[in-house]
Amino acid sequence: MKFGGTSVGDVAAFERVFHIVSTQVGRHPVVVVSAMTKVTDALLAAFETAKKGDFTEAIASLEPHFDRHVEVSLQFIPDGTPNAFNGELEFARGELADLLIRVSRRSLPLSMLKDAVVSYGEQLSSRLLAEVLRAKGVNTRHVDSRRLIVTDDEYGAAQPIWDETETLVKLELEPLIAAGEVPIMGGFIAANRGGETTTLGRGGSDYSAALIAAALRAQELQIWTDVTGVMTCDPRICGEARTIPVLSYEEAAELAYFGAKVLHPKTIKPAVDHAIPVRVCNTFEPDAVGTMVLEDSAEAPNKIKSIAHKKNITILRITSARMLGSYGFMSALFQVFERFRTVIDVISTSEVSVALTLDNTAELDKIVTELQRLGDVEVEPGYAVICVVGEGLRASTGLAARVFSTIDDVNVALVSHGASSVNLTFVIKEELVADVIKRLHEALF
């Protein structure tokens, strides 16, 4: 059971989590929790402030968030009863102060210090939840995720070492579960082989939960969030959006990658490998059906399951006569993106040109400089990717024509159909997203 930040955002949220967990104690749950809402952002802001040398302000900026944890603790744990969380919070406050001083002095690599600082969101929320549930009568045991999930040294986006992680998860958690205890763990955080704290990237709490579920061969992985499952499109754009009851892993992976925020893309892989169903549930409506993600799913009657989108997309166009009748050009192009660890979303090629899209432009200037050795480069910001997803696309005829006839007055910059048999992807100007999604939803649903 994984609970997101909004599911542990305040006193009322912790009460809801208690009711959800307590009804499933008989199923022997393991609970993975994100940081309380806004805490990760506050820790990142404190890190940036400390980098500028003002570690006093960095430390002070975290006090309101410590107070939020204390407020929850006081609400659930009566005066005069043992409250281990208070001591843990004081210890964490001291450790964070020390880390932020180190950041200001740059006494260790900043990437290492950043992961150590930001990890305290999940460290504190998981310890607090364990104490709250224990005070409410649930037999919990806090487990430090850093002792179980082993990763490489890529701070900020560490990759788990599966064999070692699987062994440690089984060794630590199976005896607790057998003894009737409910392990409570922080998501997102892990450690490398040297014991240094690493993180799995933003949104990585889902990934943590999926790794634990896979290692334990869980009956299912429940992702508890603030929406009722995966929707047919973003409900903030189209009020007619509705919950999708069942998705295939492939459909869910496409939707996650192309902007559906409910599932982290990496969640899918461990579940696929071990055929573990993933259920997306709403903490605020625990009795709602939500969305179940299975290895396979039946086609929807209209062939399409959902329309996802991703904004802040930049198009790069590379034109080079060297492409004509030659080999090795594409390899050289992809090596540029590999060197700068930048992912390409959509790509289209012709005899003498390549057009591709990026959503991560952190290294854009360096990438363009390298690409200019291969040909002329044009940079076009301000685009969005629209992704129409459904198993029905595998064998459908005329569906692409139906999509594009619905928006025949819209200039489509790029189209990708066929790389995945369950999606049709195209690129448009960002300001057209809302109108295009509304029109497609009306036509397809």
Provide a concise account of the structure shown.
It is built from 15 helices and 17 strands.
Report on the structure:
44% of the residues are buried. The chain has helices at residues 11-22, 39-51, 55-60, 63-76, 84-105, 110-118, 120-135, 162-178, 204-216, 249-257, 265-274, 329-339, 364-371, 399-406, 433-444, and strands at residues 2-3, 31-33, 140-142, 150-151, 182-186, 189-192, 197-199, 221-225, 246-248, 278-282, 291-294, 306-319, 347-349, 353-358, 376-389, 414-417, 423-429. It is an alpha/beta fold and 445 residues long. The protein is globular and about 75 Å long. Helix content is 40%, strand content 20%. The protein is built from 15 helices and 17 strands. An eight-stranded mixed sheet has the order 3-5-2-1-8-10-11-9, sandwiched between helices. A six-stranded antiparallel sheet has the order 13-14-12-15-17-16. It has a three-stranded mixed sheet with strand order 4-6-7.
Q: What integer value in Å does the Rg equal? A: 24 Å
Largest sheet: 8 strands, mixed
Share in β-strands: 15-25%
* Proportion of residues in helical segments: 40-55%
The count of DSSP E runs of length 2 or more, i.e. the number of strands, is 17
| End-to-end distance | 31 Å
How would you describe the shape?
globular
Quote the average pLDDT: 91
Oligomer class:
single chain
Helix count equals 15
Could you name the ranges where pLDDT drops below 50 across 5 or more consecutive residues?
A: none
List keywords for this structure.
alpha/beta, 17 strands, single chain, 445 residues
